[in-house]
Amino acid sequence: MNRKLQWFFLMLVVPALLLFAALAIAQTLPTFTVEPNTLSTQTGGLVTIYATGGVTFTEGSTVRLLGRGILPTVYVNPTALQATVPAGLAAGTYELRVLDSQGLELGTGSLTLTAPPATPHPTSIPTQPPPPPSGRPILTIRNYSVTPDKVRVGGEFVVAIEIYNNGSRAGENTLAIFPGGTFLPVGEQGHTLWALQINHTVVVTQQMRVPSSLSSGVYQLQVNLSANDFEGNHYDYPQAIPVEVTGGSSGTYTGKPKVIIEGAETDPATLIPGEPFSLTLRLANRGNRTAINVFAACASPEMAIPASGGDTVSTAKIAIDDVVTLTLPLIVGNVEQGGRQRMIVALEYGDYGGGTYSDQQNIGVDVNTTLNNQPQLLIEEYDITPDFLAPGDPFTLTLHVTNVGGGAAQRLMLSFGGEGGASLAPFIAANTGNVRFVPQVPPGQMVDVVQQLIVDGTADPKSYSLPISLNYDDLRGTRHSDTQRLSLIVRRIPELQASFYRQPDVLMVGVPVPLSMEVANVGRSLVDVVDLQVTSQQLELQEQESPLVGPTESGASIYLDLLATPQESGTAEVLASITYRDSFNRYQTITKTLEIEVMENPEGTQAGTLQPGMSGAEEVEEQPETFWGKVGRFFKGLLGLGS
Fold first, then answer.
1. Which of 272, 246, 271, 274 is nearest to 258 (CA)?
2. How far apart are CA 329 and CA 323, in angstroms?
3. CB 256 within 8 A of CB 288
4. What mean pLDDT comes out for the span 208-229?
5. In sequence order, which residues have a C-beta less than 8 Å from that of residue 180 and are 6 or more positions away?
6. Is the dihedral of CA 73, 74, 77, 82 positive or negative?
7. First vs last Cα of the chain: how many Å apart?
8. Which of 442, 414, 420, 303 is nearest to 362 (CA)?
9. Dmax over Cα atoms in the chain, in whole Å?
10. Please, are residues 107 and 30 in contact by the beta-carbon 8 Å criterion?
11. How many other C-beta atoms lie within 10 A of the C-beta of residue 519?
12. Could you give the CA distance from residue 190 to residue 282 in angstroms, rounded to a whole number?
């Protein structure tokens, strides 16, 4: 009966398991590429999902974040979607699933949300922000055209933009998206350009429709450009194109001014951080009412600051289709990134009807940060004397500081341990403070800065990061600050003592005698001994058995039994080489030298030993016993080596 039940159970369960496995395989979804695949929980952000495995997206496709729900989704093209991930989610790895217009799952992807680093404790070593990438793609719209020139309300038009990569890296996975808003995109609103090389251009066209409810005037058409570099860093470049709309449905004009920046240039053409320049703006009124009380100001304080007076210029009015030129005197700020940079210009104006308008527009300026006339100090290398640092040891730290910039650095102050020496521990300034002063470092020159320090006796053996704060002036008196770090390694030297705890009172040439060596750990810390070797030029040594090496506690010892045959009389040196594993898992060797006295053998070579040039079958001829031979035989009898 039991056998029949077993067969019945197998006939029911096995087909069911096979069916479930087939369904699981059938429901396997293709994996999509998500860029970027890591965001901060503090800010969230925009991600792009690229289709794979022959899957295509439609305008009804949506992105679902498991555990959160449907995300705001923008259809780019049949192979790309963009979704906005909100801030405030918990850190972790999430699964993204793409659904079609019917709610069916098309594929899946992975997204990692990371929490921002915790605020360091006030007493902890300050961390430096990561340096910016050495370069990046910079996408701008160099030229554009609108066909027809003046768009009718309710009609359609085609906009063509020439996208130019003016950066120092190629743009990968480049996208041009017309998100809509004032105007409605017709057809696909996203264009995938893939790679856009440096100094290359590409033309993208998009058909748009003007809503019937729009009134006459000049409106901004939004274009979102984005690209990655080869390291996976993502960059967004939102742009705007003015489009003139005429012919409202009622045939009347609401009328308002629209001031745009039709041209901008700087003198000099290439800007240098810290240097003055003039910014000339050509403002045109492309609206259908006169603009009055027009004000223009630089809204990028990180890019430029006023050279004299305020940072705002104005003109009384700009008539319809008129152009006015305004000039702003400015000074380039502390810009770190060179190349073509974006500067924001804020515009404010009104009309005779009491209306007020404000706008921010972007212009491009060229910045040179190659340090042609500015100082830049670099700690090229440093020396430590002695090379081996241990707790309680004094040492000398020598910095070789080079000015790699194009201008002299004046009144240089170097603070060991950062400002105020807050991060100097576990090192202590010896016989002086932690600050050094250098009057001047000319461009291309090197100076040596010497500081006497002591390692704290309680310091743990490990690698320490020592910050060096450098503060100096350029030729214009502008103060520059920088912090650079050194790595100092503190090792703990084991305290080992070697001695013979068993040895004969007298050693004679040619007489083998037993020796027993002890290596004792007299320090306070454990020593991981991995090998013990004993050598001597005056003694022939044979180990009776291998020593028991390994972790040796404080007060413990390692023993080694030897059979020593002196080869010559006098003071014999025994060299003990003790190899141990230090705190950095590296092998280090300590040598100890022991001395032992060897006497001449009154009988010459011991009977039974080999003379030079004799074979093993030949024996030493027996010599007549002398007085000193009897003395030697007496001592050998005491040692148990003869009678």
1. 246
2. 20
3. yes
4. 88
5. 189, 222
6. negative
7. 93
8. 303
9. 145
10. yes
11. 24
12. 32
Please check whether residue 403 is in contact with residue 377, taking contact to mean a CB–CB distance below 8 angstroms. yes
Structural contact between residues 227 and 139, judged by C-beta atoms closer than 8 angstroms: yes
Q: Render pLDDT for 501-536 as a digit per residue (tens, 0 to 9).
A: 877 778 888 888 888 888 888 877 788 888 888 888
CA–CA dist 166, 146 (Å, integer): 23
Q: Give the tokens for residue 596.
A: 């032992």
Q: How far is CA 487 from the centre of its chain?
A: 16
As annotated, the residues of the chain forming the CATH 2.60.40.10 domain(s) are 33-114, 139-367, 377-489, 496-611
Ordered alpha helix ranges (H), 378-429: none
Supply 313's token pair. 């210029």
What ranges in 1-126 are assigned the alpha helix state H? 2-26
Distance CA(524)–CA(493), nearest Å, equals 11
- Give 273's DSSP letter: T
- CB of 509 within 8 A of CB of 600? yes
Q: Are 84 and 71 a contacting pair, CB within 8 Å?
A: yes
DSSP string, 284-328: EE-SSS-EEEEEEEE--TTTEEESSS-SEEEEEEE-TT-EEEEEE
33-114 homologous superfamily = Immunoglobulins (2.60.40.10)
Write out pLDDT tens, residues 566-580. 988 888 888 988 888
Domain at 496-611, CATH from 2.60.40.10, 3.40.50.1110, 1.20.1250.20, 2.160.10.10:
2.60.40.10
Residues in the chain: 643
CATH code, 377-489: 2.60.40.10
Give the separation between CA 421 and CA 561, rounded to whole angstroms: 53
Please state the three-class secondary structure of 146-172 as a single string.
Answer: EECCEEECCCEEEEEEEEEECCCCCEE
| Alpha-carbon torsion angle 617, 618, 622, 627, nearest 10 | -90
Beta strand spans in 490-635 (E): 496-502, 513-521, 527-535, 539-543, 551-552, 557-566, 570-581, 587-598
Considering only 16-20, 163-167, 226-230, 282-286, which range has the smallest mean pLDDT?
Answer: 16-20
CATH 2.60.40.10 assigned to domain 139-367? The reply is yes
Residue holding tokens 């039974």? Answer: 608
Give pLDDT tens digits for 468-487: 999 999 877 778 899 999 99
| Single-letter amino acid code for the residue at 159 | V
